[in-house]
Design goal:
This protein is 19% helix and 36% strand. The chain is α+β, with helices and mostly antiparallel strands. The chain has one domain: 2-Layer Sandwich (Alpha-Beta Plaits).
Length: 117
């Protein structure tokens, strides 16, 4: 099992959500986040300087079986890409185990419904 975390542009969230659904990802969590990268830029509005170097992004967290790792990463890469600096990052971690609280199922079985495979 794997945990995939992706930090993407807010403007690409709907595209990524649709691509994940097509890749067979039925559930994921997401948060609005802010980050600071190497780009330093400021804007002046009505004579007041504003620091715009913090960037609004979406952090997506997905837990999936190993067989869904590559299709999930491909879906995010293709749908989140603009070709410009700041498109985001994807991180992959190993997950030791998981449990479905309702049924007590463990491991891969806890991540999917057998009828919906």
């Amino acid at each position: 099992m794997k945990k995939i975390e992706a930090i993407i542009r807010k403007t690409k969230f709907d595209d990524v959500k649709e691509a994940l659904h097509k890749a067979g990802i039925e559930f994921f969590t997401f948060w609005d986040v802010r980050g600071k990268g190497n780009a330093h830029e400021g804007r002046i509005y009505r004579g007041v300087a504003y620091d715009t170097s913090t960037i609004e992004r979406i952090l997506i967290s997905i837990y999936c079986r190993d067989k869904f790792l590559k299709p999930t990463i491909d879906a995010i890469m293709e749908s989140a890409k603009t070709g410009e600096i700041g498109d985001g990052k994807i991180f992959v971690s190993d997950i030791e185990d998981s449990y479905r609280i309702r049924t007590g199922e463990e491991g891969d079985k806890s991540l999917y419904n057998p009828g919906g495979e």
